[in-house]
Design goal:
The complex is a heterodimer. Helix content of chain A is about 75%, strand content about 0%. Chain A is an all-alpha fold. The chains are: A mainly alpha, B alpha+beta.
Chain lengths: ~550, ~170
């Protein structure tokens, strides 16, 4: 059969994939009661919207990099010491790294959905030859990345061409192509790892650690921009020092490092080898050698991708069972704790839920690192602690209601268990409180390295804690009441997702009030402000408890 | 639909917690049932990766684990291998025979109901068409040696329809 036939089949398969990705009905979610035609149109629209958003971010980054190259307005003090060619290479190195990070991030999220959707195995019984199926698999995989990848491949040369001239624009093409190929190959590799070691991971032992480590890795590309901005000044300073020193073993290593080897090409085309001040004959040799190796690696990756995509997509999520001994020992616990442990175990094998747990914590860690790395001339521990607990509390409270999505997973079975709403509520509140405590402790733990005020920091964390618990009670209590009034099962929130978002507004106000009152009263003294904060937080806990457990509560 | 991201051991630990069981009893029963149903390494594999038959075994163990006075099961023998079907049948019979406990289960396989049940209720499109012992149901359709399948078809007035459907298939295949 022809490519045209493969394209036609992949269109149908991609529609099915979009439907599954958007509505997640294979995971137990209930489909909205709309016409199938409307659901299909909606899922197609949302997938296109997602691609447009990622492409827009990539375009913004690319145009921003081009603007930096032209204006050199990042930090004049640093830039005066960095030769223009080296500066351009540095910016393009950052750009290519971000391109890979964002494309990889897209792939890491979509590949597991593609595999578990089972769209290709359904083609198996049809009278299609192996070549057509392989083509369909390849097309399906490429369609996950089409618009973002095209943005990189077209916009990068265009933007660099505008900044440094058309020849330099052409010189960045190999870098853009290799970045896309590597991102696609990394997505497939990590997708395979995800299937075997995360989603399909056995229970117990150090495997939980591996799962959470992967899930942190899964989120890290999302912080690519943040890391780029944070690391850029240090990178430029190192380049300035390297330029002063001239050609050296370090500059040879830099020339051979990916993606610098590709990023330096447009600068050489635009300004010659001398514009970088780091090139000697040895460095040029290292650069040529590195380009040849990366080029060969990319070619091999293309071959590997086309041969592996098919086998990966036919990997059923019902794989083989390793004949390793398993214990039948169980340790039942209190019901609320069991809900919490269950949620954490599900999250450790499900990136979507892990995202809810990890994002606030990683955000907090990033904020802590920024606090540690940013010099402040007049440090005030109380202000720092207030900012830390407010950030951690707001993040944990905002994501809180979304944890109900986990209950949807096995709703039909879960409702057959004597699992009270109160137990579910306590389990979710424990998870939200844990996220707050971990997030605030991460920020302030890192801040301790600069300002050693453990008692002040602990005081703020504990003073805000009742407000976080109260806000969680309030949000979840409102959610329960709303579900009951509508006659909905509490776990079937898919049809009312807006309410799960709406309840976070009073929750956020609740966690924001004690820090606000501290700001107002701290002029009297930090201790007084902290006491006011603690008292208000305790009162809020009371209000939240009434909403969760008072008259009319389910 | 189970919690597919959990392993059977993790899932059953959750169920035992919700049922407020103590660790010793839960472990002892899980060991017995997993041995009987030959659930070995599968106990530590995510449920999403297991076959339908193994999932069914997990569900059955979850139902039996806390030894309820009334066991309610929906198509308990679906997807099970012949050995497990035999074990399950014996488990259900002994469950009732041990006294003070009952089993209520649904099935589309009339032979299973005929073999296991003291009383049978015949449901058709949400309505109870007949209920009682096999002898009482036979008396109701006035057929002393009728199988439960024949009783079902007569009580739901589908016996003639079945014959007509088969005849039409014969015509279609000519």
């Amino acid at each position: 059969m022809s490519w045209r036939e493969a394209v036609r089949i992949s269109n149908v398969a991609f529609t099915e994939l979009s439907l599954q990705a958007v509505f997640a009905f294979r995971q137990g979610n209930v489909l909205p009661a709309d016409r199938a035609k409307d659901l299909v149109a909606r899922s197609r629209r949302r997938v296109v919207q997602s691609k447009v958003v990622i492409s827009a971010v990539l375009a913004l980054v690319t145009l921003g990099a081009a603007a930096f190259i032209r204006q050199k307005s990042l930090n004049p003090e640093i830039l005066s010491a960095v030769p223009s060619g080296l500066f351009q290479s540095a910016i393009l190195t950052g750009l290519l790294s971000l391109d890979i990070a964002l494309l990889w991030w897209t792939g890491v999220q979509m590949v597991p959905t593609l595999i578990s959707s089972g769209v290709l195995p359904t083609l198996e019984p049809l009278p299609l030859d192996a070549r057509t199926v392989r083509r369909v698999a390849t097309l399906l995989y490429l369609r996950l990345f089409d618009l973002p990848a095209l943005t990189v491949l077209i916009l990068t040369p265009a933007a660099v061409g505008l900044a440094l001239g058309p020849l330099a624009g052409a010189a960045v093409v190999p870098g853009a192509v290799v970045a896309v190929v590597f991102a696609l190959a990394l997505s497939l590799l990590t997708g395979r790892f995800f299937l075997h070691r995360v989603q399909g991971s056995r229970g117990g032992g150090g495997r939980s650690f591996v799962r959470w480590a992967y899930l942190v890795l899964w989120l890290v590309p999302a912080f690519g921009m943040f890391a780029f901005i944070t690391a850029a000044p240090a990178f430029l300073r190192a380049l300035a020092a390297m330029a002063v020193q001239g050609p050296s073993p370090a500059s040879t290593l830099l020339a051979a490092a990916f993606p610098f080897s590709f990023a330096v090409l447009p600068a050489i085309v635009a300004g010659g080898v001398g514009s970088t001040s780091i090139f000697s004959s040895t460095t040029v040799l290292a650069l040529v050698g590195a380009l040849a190796v990366y080029g060969a690696l990319a070619s091999w990756a293309v071959v590997w991708l086309t041969s592996s995509v098919r086998s990966l997509l036919f990997l059923s999520d019902r794989g083989r069972v390793d004949a390793l001994p398993a214990s039948a020992s169980v340790r039942p616990s209190g019901v609320a704790w069991a809900v919490l442990v269950k949620d954490m175990r599900i999250a450790s094998r499900t990136p979507g839920y892990a995202f809810l747990v990890l994002l606030p914590i990683l955000d907090a860690a990033a904020l802590g690192l920024l606090t540690y790395a940013t010099p402040t001339s007049n440090p005030v521990a109380a202000s720092l602690a207030l900012g830390a607990v407010t950030t951690a509390a707001l993040l944990a409270t905002f994501f809180g209601p979304a944890f109900f999505a986990i209950e949807v997973v096995a709703y039909s079975y879960g409702r057959s268990l004597p699992l009270s709403n109160r137990s579910i509520l306590f389990g979710k509140v424990a998870l939200i409180s844990f996220m707050y405590l971990l997030g605030a402790s991460l920020i302030l733990g890192l801040a301790l390295l600069r300002f050693f005020e453990p008692l002040t920091f602990a005081g703020f964390i504990l003073a805000e804690l009742p407000a976080v618990i109260g806000a969680a009670f309030l949000e979840l209590g409102l959610l329960f009441r709303w579900a009951e009034r509508r006659g909905l099962a509490i776990t079937n929130l898919y049809t009312g997702a807006w309410f799960a978002l709406a309840v976070s507004i009073p929750g956020l106000a609740m966690v924001g009030l004690p820090p606000l009152l501290f700001e107002v009263t701290q002029s009297v003294g930090v201790a007084v402000g902290l006491a006011v904060m603690a008292v208000v937080a305790a009162l809020e806990l009371g209000v939240g408890s009434v909403v969760a457990f008072g008259r009319g509560a389910s | 639909m189970l919690y597919e991201a959990l392993t059977p051991r993790e899932f059953l630990e959750f169920v035992a917690s919700v049922r407020r069981m103590d660790a010793a009893t839960a472990t002892r029963r899980l060991e017995s049932y997993s041995e009987a149903f030959r659930l070995g390494p599968e106990l530590e594999e995510p449920i999403a990766t297991l076959s339908n038959g193994t999932r069914q075994k997990v569900l059955i163990i979850a139902a039996l684990l806390h030894a309820p006075p009334l066991l309610v099961l929906d198509e308990p023998l679906n997807s099970l291998d012949p050995r497990s079907v035999r074990i399950m049948k014996d488990v259900l019979q002994r469950y009732v025979a041990s006294g003070g406990r009952g089993v209520l289960f649904s099935t589309h396989t009339m032979e299973v109901a005929e073999q296991l049940c003291h009383r049978v209720g015949i449901l058709d499109r949400g309505a109870l068409r007949g209920e009682g012992t096999l002898a009482a149901l036979r008396a109701r359709v006035e057929a002393g040696d009728a199988s439960l399948e024949e009783i079902f078809l007569r009580l739901t007035e589908q016996d003639v329809g079945v014959r007509a459907a088969v005849d039409s298939l014969d015509d279609a295949s000519v």
